[in-house]
Design a protein that fits this description.
Elements (H helix, E strand, L loop, with lengths): L1 E7 L15 H16 L4 H6 L2 E12 L8 E11 L3 E10 L2 E14 L4 E2 L4 H7 L7 E4 L1
Parallel strand pairs: 1-7
Antiparallel strand pairs: 1-3, 2-5, 3-4, 4-5, 5-6
């Protein structure tokens, strides 16, 4: 499945010319990943209470076209890989079906006290498996 989350572009997201500042696309991707987890019934607070967190290990990003003030962009997220203690996501940002930004995000599961890799909970892994496919799921 592909999870899609819409984000309106506010003045605070842009530079003086009304173009989205390049680093803000990372924030949009993070927001979409958080909403994705919420649809699976998991919050960052709950993960911390359970002693683990999901952290970004690496990001590859390709900027293709800018978003502008008052645009509404869609962030589509899907899983490319699902490991024992890691996952790789593809996140694509579009406006009216035009691709703006494409990210490949490498994520790791860590023990929050030891700051070391830890296996993801089996229940979460089972909830993530359907997102290795192509069916669409959206949250506005």
């Amino acid at each position: 499945m592909i999870f899609t989350f819409d984000i309106p572009i506010y003045y605070e997201d842009t530079d003086a010319g009304g173009i989205v500042y390049y680093a803000n696309y990372l924030k949009f991707a993070e927001r979409a990943r958080t909403e994705f987890l919420h649809t699976l019934g998991l919050t960052n607070k709950e993960m911390l209470e359970q002693g683990f967190a999901i952290v970004v290990r690496r990001v590859e990003i390709d900027y293709k076209s800018p978003a502008q003030l008052e645009d509404v962009i869609s962030v589509s997220s899907s899983l490319l890989e699902l490991g024992a203690a890691s996952m790789v996501m593809r996140q694509t940002m579009t406006r009216n079906d035009r691709e703006l930004v494409n990210l490949k995000v490498y994520l790791a599961f860590i023990d929050v006290k030891a700051l070391r890799p830890v296996r993801m909970p089996d229940a979460l892994k089972e909830k993530l498996k359907p997102y290795l496919g192509e069916e669409t799921c959206s949250r506005k």
